């Protein structure tokens, strides 16, 4: 078998890359380890920057997003019960759209009824310094795919980054001393906009998926297990971290999903190894506080698609040569913002009273400075590519 671009992973990065290449007439095949249902069952973030919305439109899969997505003009930061609204529209003239990653994935899957091989086991990358090919096992049979390029869109635990010799790659990492316990519930959101709350007991986030489905999070310790958290315990803890009116307005109910994610910042450099390119979570992880994970995956593949399409259309490799540096410049800025939001809003057990006062001073500065609010809004709604 032969294709132009072999894509590893059918998450939002791999599916969007495949879609953009399809529209430009560049042949590609996606290899995904899991089943389509499994991929669609994963609950992930749900805030899209305008750039990601525009990309969905360019990929001609934006119809349902515009019908069902919720456009948000701002967000609320809350510090020990004091609320500060960040008005994106007034500050930077941009908005974000609440639309679950699951829905993005579904729209992209529907636009691509074939040429994705699900449940491909033992995917292996070969000769990406020369004539690349990929092998995998499906139903006990080993397959081989020759290609011009490989796009590693297989997430943090994927095989692509792991195939690169250690000497050729440098990684940067910070693991935070806490996680987020998330709960999904079929109840209307407590607030029209997202609330990011810093409380003495730790961080809490009120988010949403639709007008009838909410997503809430509380900061938990690294040793906490989902089994330790009954729904009742979760709701009690969440309410304690919010101001009184919000807590009183909260509509609780039985969870339909509950999971814990460890918070981490991670970047791999470079993103190109011969004819292998990394994009999305395969290349970087952000802590979710800035809502940047999905958006970064989208901007990576937008740049990678442009570079690959340029190669096939004009025969020039300038775009491919520049991809790594171009994408990393934007990635590091999103890493910085996510790290900063995380630092402002979480309880850091080792930082003591001084650390807390610094966080409060930062919040007070934000509350009194339009320039600081504008910086937050500019980053949250998405920096230009
Ligand atoms: N072979 C084939 N597929 C693989 C392999 C492998 N060895 N390892 C992982 N995969 C698949 C996973 O099953 C998954 O479907 O690669 C896909 C990677 O998808 P994501 O993890 O969703 O990563 P990405 O597409 O880069 O999207 C980033 O996901 O984690 C969130 O917050 C993150 O929103 C961001 C987005
Ligand atoms: C979510 O809805 O899951 C969500 C929203 C905003 C974030 C993180 C997660 O910053």
List the helices and strands and how they pair.
Elements: E1 5-8, H1 12-23, E2 28-31, H2 36-41, E3 47-48, H3 50-58, H4 63-68, E4 70-72, E5 74-79, E6 82-87, H5 88-92, E7 96-98, H6 101-110, E8 116-117, E9 121-126, E10 133-138, E11 141-146, E12 149-152, H7 159-162, E13 170-185, E14 195-199, E15 202-208, E16 214-220, H8 231-240, H9 244-249, E17 255-269, E18 272-273, E19 276-278, E20 284-285, H10 293-314, H11 318-345, H12 352-368, H13 370-381
Parallel strand pairs: 1-2, 1-12, 2-8, 5-14, 12-19
Antiparallel strand pairs: 3-7, 4-7, 5-6, 9-10, 10-11, 13-16, 13-17, 14-15, 15-16, 17-20, 18-19
Helix pairs in contact: 1-6, 1-10, 10-11, 12-13
P-hydroxybenzoic acid is lined by residues 45-47, 194, 207, 215, 288-289, 291.
Attribute tags:
eight-stranded mixed β-sheet; globular; 385 residues; alpha+beta; single chain; binds adenosine-5-diphosphoribose; 38% helix; FAD/NAD(P)-binding domain
Alpha carbon gap, first and last residue: 35 Å
Instruction: Tell me the CATH topology of the domain at 5-46 and 101-173 and 264-343.
Output: FAD/NAD(P)-binding domain
Q: Percent of residues in helical segments?
A: 25-40%
Q: Indicate the overall shape.
A: globular
**In CATH, what is the homologous superfamily of the domain at 5-46 and 101-173 and 264-343?**
FAD/NAD(P)-binding domain
Category by helix and strand content: alpha+beta
- What small ligands are held by the chains? adenosine-5-diphosphoribose, P-hydroxybenzoic acid
Poorly predicted runs of 5 or more residues: none
Number of helices, counting only DSSP H or I runs of 4 residues or more: 13
